Amino acid sequence: MSCRRDPAPASSGHRADRRCDDPVQPCPLHCPPLEIEVNNTPATDDDYVQIKCTFPPGRHRVPCRIRVRNAGPESPTIVLTNPDGRLRFPGDTDTTKTLSVPANGSWASFEISGETGSNALDDAVIEAHCQTPTGAVLATKTVTVFWFDQAQIGVTAGGSYSVVAGRFEPVGGNAVNYSAQARLRPAGARCAAPQIANLRIGILQNGLAPATRTLRYDNPTIGWSSGVAPGTTVSVPTTIELSWSQTGDANDSAASVAPLYDQPGKADQLDANSLRPPLGCTNGGAATSFDSPSGGAAATLTQDARSAAGAVVGTITYRFVNRSEDSAFITWAALFDTVTHEVCALRERTWSLHIDSAGAGPQRATPAATDRAPTQVPIVGGAFANTLQRQSGPTAVGPATTTFTR
Length: 406
Description:
Blueprint: E1 2-4, H1 15-20, E2 24-26, E3 34-38, E4 48-50, E5 53-54, E6 57-58, E7 62-68, E8 77-81, E9 87-88, E10 96-100, E11 108-114, E12 124-130, E13 137-157, E14 160-164, E15 167-171, E16 176-185, E17 199-224, E18 233-237, E19 240-246, E20 250-251, E21 287-291, E22 295-296, E23 300-306, E24 312-337, E25 343-356, E26 365-367, E27 390-396, E28 401-405
Parallel strand pairs: 1-2, 4-13
Antiparallel strand pairs: 3-7, 5-6, 7-11, 8-10, 8-12, 9-11, 12-13, 13-16, 14-15, 15-22, 16-21, 17-19, 17-20, 17-24, 18-28, 19-27, 23-24, 24-25, 25-26
Protein backbone atom coordinates (compact mmCIF):
# COMPACT_ATOMS: atom_id res chain seq x y z
CA MET A 1 0.00 0.00 0.00
CA SER A 2 1.37 3.43 -0.90
CA CYS A 3 0.92 6.67 1.01
CA ARG A 4 1.01 10.37 0.26
CA ARG A 5 1.09 13.67 2.11
CA ASP A 6 -0.53 15.74 -0.64
CA PRO A 7 -3.76 15.08 -2.52
CA ALA A 8 -3.30 12.56 -5.38
CA PRO A 9 -3.26 14.00 -8.93
CA ALA A 10 -6.48 13.74 -10.89
CA SER A 11 -6.75 10.42 -12.71
CA SER A 12 -6.57 10.46 -16.50
CA GLY A 13 -7.50 6.80 -16.95
CA HIS A 14 -10.75 4.92 -17.16
CA ARG A 15 -12.89 3.96 -14.21
CA ALA A 16 -11.64 0.44 -14.55
CA ASP A 17 -8.05 1.77 -14.13
CA ARG A 18 -8.93 3.48 -10.84
CA ARG A 19 -10.51 0.33 -9.50
CA CYS A 20 -7.29 -1.51 -10.23
CA ASP A 21 -5.02 1.01 -8.53
CA ASP A 22 -3.72 0.22 -5.06
CA PRO A 23 -5.50 2.34 -2.40
CA VAL A 24 -3.55 5.47 -1.54
CA GLN A 25 -3.68 6.62 2.12
CA PRO A 26 -2.29 9.70 3.91
CA CYS A 27 1.14 9.06 5.39
CA PRO A 28 1.20 8.80 9.20
CA LEU A 29 2.29 11.98 10.98
CA HIS A 30 5.96 11.98 11.90
CA CYS A 31 7.31 13.61 15.08
CA PRO A 32 10.99 13.18 15.94
CA PRO A 33 12.38 12.70 19.47
CA LEU A 34 12.60 15.93 21.47
CA GLU A 35 14.37 17.30 24.53
CA ILE A 36 13.15 19.82 27.13
CA GLU A 37 15.12 22.13 29.41
CA VAL A 38 13.67 23.95 32.44
CA ASN A 39 15.08 27.38 33.30
CA ASN A 40 16.76 27.26 29.88
CA THR A 41 19.65 25.17 31.16
CA PRO A 42 20.58 21.48 30.85
CA ALA A 43 21.16 21.34 34.62
CA THR A 44 18.55 19.54 36.71
CA ASP A 45 19.23 21.27 40.05
CA ASP A 46 17.36 24.41 38.89
CA ASP A 47 14.21 22.62 37.73
CA TYR A 48 11.93 24.47 40.17
CA VAL A 49 8.89 26.70 39.87
CA GLN A 50 7.15 28.60 42.68
CA ILE A 51 3.52 27.90 43.49
CA LYS A 52 1.11 30.67 42.49
CA CYS A 53 0.43 33.48 44.96
CA THR A 54 -3.16 34.27 45.95
CA PHE A 55 -2.63 37.47 48.00
CA PRO A 56 -1.83 39.33 45.79
CA PRO A 57 -2.75 37.15 42.78
CA GLY A 58 0.29 36.34 40.72
CA ARG A 59 2.30 33.63 39.02
CA HIS A 60 6.06 33.24 39.00
CA ARG A 61 6.99 32.18 35.48
CA VAL A 62 10.02 30.05 34.68
CA PRO A 63 11.37 30.07 31.10
CA CYS A 64 11.72 26.69 29.38
CA ARG A 65 12.61 25.46 25.92
CA ILE A 66 12.21 22.43 23.64
CA ARG A 67 13.95 21.23 20.46
CA VAL A 68 14.28 18.22 18.17
CA ARG A 69 17.22 15.95 18.99
CA ASN A 70 18.16 15.58 15.34
CA ALA A 71 17.50 18.06 12.56
CA GLY A 72 14.96 16.91 9.99
CA PRO A 73 12.92 18.08 7.01
CA GLU A 74 9.79 19.16 8.91
CA SER A 75 8.97 21.31 11.94
CA PRO A 76 6.75 19.15 14.13
CA THR A 77 3.75 20.50 15.99
CA ILE A 78 3.75 19.35 19.59
CA VAL A 79 1.34 19.79 22.50
CA LEU A 80 2.68 20.17 26.03
CA THR A 81 0.61 18.71 28.85
CA ASN A 82 0.95 18.18 32.58
CA PRO A 83 -1.02 15.09 33.62
CA ASP A 84 -0.59 15.68 37.38
CA GLY A 85 -2.13 19.19 37.21
CA ARG A 86 0.64 20.89 39.18
CA LEU A 87 1.72 23.20 36.34
CA ARG A 88 0.30 25.78 33.96
CA PHE A 89 1.73 27.00 30.61
CA PRO A 90 1.74 29.60 32.24
CA GLY A 91 -1.66 31.34 32.76
CA ASP A 92 -4.47 30.26 35.05
CA THR A 93 -6.33 28.32 32.36
CA ASP A 94 -3.34 27.23 30.25
CA THR A 95 -3.38 23.49 30.93
CA THR A 96 -1.77 22.74 27.55
CA LYS A 97 0.55 24.54 25.17
CA THR A 98 0.83 24.01 21.41
CA LEU A 99 4.18 24.77 19.77
CA SER A 100 5.84 24.41 16.40
CA VAL A 101 9.37 23.14 17.03
CA PRO A 102 11.96 24.20 14.41
CA ALA A 103 13.18 21.37 12.22
CA ASN A 104 16.76 22.63 12.29
CA GLY A 105 17.26 21.92 16.00
CA SER A 106 16.74 25.49 17.24
CA TRP A 107 14.98 25.94 20.55
CA ALA A 108 11.28 26.83 20.86
CA SER A 109 10.47 28.76 24.04
CA PHE A 110 7.61 28.37 26.50
CA GLU A 111 6.93 29.21 30.14
CA ILE A 112 5.57 27.33 33.13
CA SER A 113 4.09 28.40 36.45
CA GLY A 114 3.13 26.51 39.58
CA GLU A 115 -0.51 25.63 40.26
CA THR A 116 -0.32 23.03 43.06
CA GLY A 117 2.60 22.28 45.35
CA SER A 118 4.73 19.17 44.90
CA ASN A 119 4.48 16.39 47.47
CA ALA A 120 7.98 15.24 46.56
CA LEU A 121 10.84 16.43 44.40
CA ASP A 122 10.31 16.11 40.64
CA ASP A 123 6.68 14.96 40.82
CA ALA A 124 5.38 17.52 38.31
CA VAL A 125 5.83 16.22 34.76
CA ILE A 126 5.89 18.03 31.45
CA GLU A 127 4.93 15.78 28.54
CA ALA A 128 5.48 16.67 24.87
CA HIS A 129 2.91 14.97 22.58
CA CYS A 130 2.93 14.64 18.83
CA GLN A 131 0.29 16.85 17.22
CA THR A 132 -2.46 16.48 19.85
CA PRO A 133 -2.75 16.24 23.66
CA THR A 134 -3.22 12.47 23.28
CA GLY A 135 -0.57 11.92 20.63
CA ALA A 136 2.59 9.93 21.14
CA VAL A 137 4.82 11.16 23.99
CA LEU A 138 8.06 12.40 22.48
CA ALA A 139 9.75 13.81 25.61
CA THR A 140 9.15 14.26 29.32
CA LYS A 141 10.70 16.56 31.91
CA THR A 142 10.18 16.58 35.67
CA VAL A 143 9.84 19.76 37.74
CA THR A 144 9.36 20.58 41.44
CA VAL A 145 6.66 23.08 42.43
CA PHE A 146 7.95 24.52 45.70
CA TRP A 147 5.69 26.01 48.33
CA PHE A 148 5.61 26.90 52.03
CA ASP A 149 3.95 25.46 55.11
CA GLN A 150 4.11 26.14 58.87
CA ALA A 151 3.51 29.80 58.07
CA GLN A 152 2.85 31.86 61.20
CA ILE A 153 2.56 35.51 62.15
CA GLY A 154 2.81 36.20 65.85
CA VAL A 155 1.62 39.51 67.31
CA THR A 156 2.23 39.75 71.06
CA ALA A 157 1.12 42.65 73.24
CA GLY A 158 3.91 44.28 75.22
CA GLY A 159 4.07 47.41 77.36
CA SER A 160 1.17 49.37 78.84
CA TYR A 161 0.57 52.93 77.63
CA SER A 162 1.23 55.88 79.91
CA VAL A 163 2.08 59.58 79.59
CA VAL A 164 5.83 59.95 80.04
CA ALA A 165 7.68 63.25 79.52
CA GLY A 166 4.90 64.67 77.40
CA ARG A 167 4.30 61.56 75.27
CA PHE A 168 1.66 58.84 75.41
CA GLU A 169 3.71 55.71 74.80
CA PRO A 170 4.10 52.07 75.85
CA VAL A 171 6.12 51.57 79.02
CA GLY A 172 7.88 48.32 79.87
CA GLY A 173 8.13 47.07 76.29
CA ASN A 174 6.94 47.67 72.74
CA ALA A 175 3.25 48.00 72.01
CA VAL A 176 3.46 44.74 70.03
CA ASN A 177 6.21 42.33 69.01
CA TYR A 178 6.12 40.45 65.70
CA SER A 179 7.40 37.04 64.69
CA ALA A 180 6.96 35.64 61.14
CA GLN A 181 8.06 32.30 59.72
CA ALA A 182 7.37 29.68 57.04
CA ARG A 183 8.99 26.41 55.95
CA LEU A 184 10.13 25.53 52.41
CA ARG A 185 8.43 22.47 50.91
CA PRO A 186 8.71 19.78 49.64
CA ALA A 187 11.37 18.19 51.78
CA GLY A 188 14.76 18.32 50.11
CA ALA A 189 14.03 21.38 47.96
CA ARG A 190 17.30 23.09 47.05
CA CYS A 191 17.53 26.48 48.77
CA ALA A 192 20.34 27.57 46.43
CA ALA A 193 18.22 27.11 43.29
CA PRO A 194 17.92 30.48 41.54
CA GLN A 195 14.13 30.51 41.94
CA ILE A 196 14.53 30.13 45.74
CA ALA A 197 17.86 31.71 46.67
CA ASN A 198 16.58 35.30 46.88
CA LEU A 199 13.42 34.53 48.86
CA ARG A 200 13.07 35.60 52.48
CA ILE A 201 10.34 35.65 55.09
CA GLY A 202 9.43 39.16 56.22
CA ILE A 203 6.61 41.23 57.70
CA LEU A 204 3.98 43.35 55.95
CA GLN A 205 1.56 45.67 57.74
CA ASN A 206 -1.36 47.85 56.72
CA GLY A 207 -3.01 50.52 58.83
CA LEU A 208 -6.78 50.18 58.55
CA ALA A 209 -9.37 52.92 58.34
CA PRO A 210 -11.03 54.54 60.11
CA ALA A 211 -8.33 55.40 62.62
CA THR A 212 -8.57 58.35 65.01
CA ARG A 213 -6.32 60.00 67.59
CA THR A 214 -7.44 62.81 69.85
CA LEU A 215 -5.89 65.22 72.35
CA ARG A 216 -8.25 66.96 74.76
CA TYR A 217 -7.55 70.07 76.87
CA ASP A 218 -9.65 72.11 79.32
CA ASN A 219 -9.49 74.54 82.27
CA PRO A 220 -8.32 77.59 80.25
CA THR A 221 -6.43 80.44 81.85
CA ILE A 222 -5.38 83.76 80.30
CA GLY A 223 -2.27 85.83 80.24
CA TRP A 224 -3.08 89.40 79.18
CA SER A 225 -0.80 91.36 76.92
CA SER A 226 0.48 94.69 78.23
CA GLY A 227 -1.56 97.74 77.33
CA VAL A 228 -4.88 95.94 76.96
CA ALA A 229 -7.67 98.26 78.00
CA PRO A 230 -9.61 97.44 81.15
CA GLY A 231 -13.02 95.95 80.42
CA THR A 232 -11.77 93.97 77.42
CA THR A 233 -13.38 90.51 77.32
CA VAL A 234 -12.31 87.22 75.75
CA SER A 235 -14.63 84.23 75.49
CA VAL A 236 -13.18 80.76 74.65
CA PRO A 237 -14.44 77.16 74.65
CA THR A 238 -13.97 75.55 78.03
CA THR A 239 -12.78 72.31 76.43
CA ILE A 240 -11.01 71.89 73.09
CA GLU A 241 -9.75 68.96 71.09
CA LEU A 242 -7.10 68.24 68.48
CA SER A 243 -7.69 65.19 66.30
CA TRP A 244 -6.02 63.14 63.59
CA SER A 245 -7.83 60.75 61.29
CA GLN A 246 -6.93 58.21 58.61
CA THR A 247 -9.77 57.67 56.15
CA GLY A 248 -8.26 54.97 53.94
CA ASP A 249 -6.35 51.72 54.37
CA ALA A 250 -2.64 52.10 53.59
CA ASN A 251 0.73 50.44 53.83
CA ASP A 252 2.18 51.05 57.30
CA SER A 253 5.76 51.40 56.19
CA ALA A 254 8.50 53.87 55.30
CA ALA A 255 10.13 54.55 51.94
CA SER A 256 13.47 52.88 52.69
CA VAL A 257 11.96 49.56 53.84
CA ALA A 258 8.86 49.43 51.60
CA PRO A 259 7.04 47.37 50.59
CA LEU A 260 7.75 45.55 53.87
CA TYR A 261 7.12 46.88 57.34
CA ASP A 262 10.81 46.46 58.24
CA GLN A 263 14.08 45.46 56.55
CA PRO A 264 17.57 45.06 57.96
CA GLY A 265 20.33 47.39 56.84
CA LYS A 266 17.95 50.15 55.73
CA ALA A 267 17.62 53.71 56.95
CA ASP A 268 14.34 52.98 58.75
CA GLN A 269 15.37 49.59 60.14
CA LEU A 270 13.69 48.63 63.40
CA ASP A 271 15.04 45.10 63.86
CA ALA A 272 18.16 43.61 62.28
CA ASN A 273 16.39 40.23 62.31
CA SER A 274 13.42 41.42 60.23
CA LEU A 275 14.21 39.28 57.15
CA ARG A 276 15.09 35.59 57.42
CA PRO A 277 15.48 32.62 55.07
CA PRO A 278 12.62 30.14 55.30
CA LEU A 279 12.81 27.23 57.70
CA GLY A 280 14.64 24.37 56.05
CA CYS A 281 17.33 26.65 54.59
CA THR A 282 20.65 27.75 56.08
CA ASN A 283 20.03 30.35 58.82
CA GLY A 284 16.30 29.82 58.42
CA GLY A 285 14.17 31.08 61.27
CA ALA A 286 11.59 33.60 62.40
CA ALA A 287 11.77 37.21 61.22
CA THR A 288 11.11 39.65 64.07
CA SER A 289 10.17 43.28 64.51
CA PHE A 290 7.94 45.48 66.66
CA ASP A 291 5.61 48.47 66.68
CA SER A 292 5.16 51.21 69.28
CA PRO A 293 2.71 53.87 68.10
CA SER A 294 3.01 56.95 70.30
CA GLY A 295 2.24 60.63 70.26
CA GLY A 296 2.54 63.92 72.03
CA ALA A 297 0.64 64.62 75.25
CA ALA A 298 2.01 68.00 76.32
CA ALA A 299 0.89 69.24 79.73
CA THR A 300 -0.44 72.49 78.24
CA LEU A 301 -1.67 73.88 74.97
CA THR A 302 -1.57 77.61 74.19
CA GLN A 303 -3.78 79.64 71.87
CA ASP A 304 -4.05 83.33 71.01
CA ALA A 305 -6.58 85.18 73.15
CA ARG A 306 -8.70 87.34 70.87
CA SER A 307 -11.14 90.07 71.75
CA ALA A 308 -14.62 90.24 70.27
CA ALA A 309 -13.12 92.45 67.55
CA GLY A 310 -10.54 89.78 66.67
CA ALA A 311 -7.50 91.54 68.13
CA VAL A 312 -4.86 89.42 69.88
CA VAL A 313 -4.93 90.55 73.50
CA GLY A 314 -3.08 87.74 75.26
CA THR A 315 -2.50 84.00 75.48
CA ILE A 316 -4.93 81.26 76.53
CA THR A 317 -3.34 78.25 78.20
CA TYR A 318 -5.25 74.97 78.39
CA ARG A 319 -4.51 72.04 80.69
CA PHE A 320 -4.03 68.52 79.29
CA VAL A 321 -6.92 66.14 79.94
CA ASN A 322 -6.24 62.98 77.95
CA ARG A 323 -4.99 61.43 74.74
CA SER A 324 -6.91 58.57 73.14
CA GLU A 325 -6.42 56.39 70.10
CA ASP A 326 -8.63 53.99 68.17
CA SER A 327 -6.76 52.26 65.37
CA ALA A 328 -6.48 48.84 63.79
CA PHE A 329 -3.82 47.00 61.83
CA ILE A 330 -3.42 43.85 59.78
CA THR A 331 -0.01 42.20 59.76
CA TRP A 332 1.24 39.41 57.50
CA ALA A 333 4.01 36.88 57.38
CA ALA A 334 5.12 37.43 53.78
CA LEU A 335 7.42 35.91 51.22
CA PHE A 336 9.74 38.60 49.85
CA ASP A 337 12.05 38.49 46.84
CA THR A 338 15.09 40.61 47.70
CA VAL A 339 15.82 41.24 44.00
CA THR A 340 12.41 41.89 42.44
CA HIS A 341 10.77 43.14 45.69
CA GLU A 342 7.70 41.02 44.95
CA VAL A 343 5.70 39.95 47.99
CA CYS A 344 3.24 37.17 48.72
CA ALA A 345 1.20 37.09 51.93
CA LEU A 346 1.28 33.70 53.66
CA ARG A 347 -0.49 34.30 56.97
CA GLU A 348 -2.21 37.26 58.65
CA ARG A 349 -3.23 38.54 62.08
CA THR A 350 -5.06 41.68 63.13
CA TRP A 351 -4.49 43.84 66.19
CA SER A 352 -5.83 47.11 67.51
CA LEU A 353 -5.27 49.99 69.90
CA HIS A 354 -8.23 51.27 71.91
CA ILE A 355 -6.38 53.25 74.52
CA ASP A 356 -7.02 56.34 76.62
CA SER A 357 -4.54 58.02 78.93
CA ALA A 358 -7.42 58.69 81.34
CA GLY A 359 -8.83 55.18 81.08
CA ALA A 360 -9.07 52.68 83.90
CA GLY A 361 -6.79 49.65 83.97
CA PRO A 362 -3.83 48.81 81.71
CA GLN A 363 -3.92 50.50 78.32
CA ARG A 364 -2.45 47.95 75.93
CA ALA A 365 -2.62 46.72 72.36
CA THR A 366 -5.15 43.96 71.64
CA PRO A 367 -3.96 41.29 69.16
CA ALA A 368 -6.39 38.80 67.63
CA ALA A 369 -6.31 35.47 69.45
CA THR A 370 -4.91 33.55 66.46
CA ASP A 371 -3.50 34.11 63.03
CA ARG A 372 -5.31 32.90 59.91
CA ALA A 373 -4.97 32.33 56.19
CA PRO A 374 -4.87 35.63 54.27
CA THR A 375 -8.27 37.21 53.60
CA GLN A 376 -7.29 40.38 51.74
CA VAL A 377 -4.61 41.66 49.41
CA PRO A 378 -1.98 43.77 51.20
CA ILE A 379 -1.60 47.37 50.09
CA VAL A 380 2.05 47.81 49.19
CA GLY A 381 2.01 50.96 47.01
CA GLY A 382 0.63 54.46 47.15
CA ALA A 383 0.77 56.75 50.14
CA PHE A 384 1.94 55.39 53.48
CA ALA A 385 -0.42 55.29 56.45
CA ASN A 386 1.38 58.08 58.31
CA THR A 387 1.05 60.45 55.37
CA LEU A 388 -2.69 59.86 55.11
CA GLN A 389 -3.38 61.18 58.60
CA ARG A 390 -5.19 64.51 58.59
CA GLN A 391 -5.19 66.91 61.54
CA SER A 392 -8.17 69.00 62.53
CA GLY A 393 -8.74 71.48 65.34
CA PRO A 394 -8.45 72.72 67.84
CA THR A 395 -12.23 72.59 67.97
CA ALA A 396 -14.65 73.18 70.81
CA VAL A 397 -15.96 70.16 72.71
CA GLY A 398 -19.52 70.91 73.82
CA PRO A 399 -21.19 74.30 74.21
CA ALA A 400 -19.52 75.45 77.43
CA THR A 401 -17.42 78.62 77.26
CA THR A 402 -15.21 80.52 79.66
CA THR A 403 -15.13 84.34 79.62
CA PHE A 404 -12.26 86.48 80.86
CA THR A 405 -12.50 90.22 81.54
CA ARG A 406 -9.51 92.53 81.81
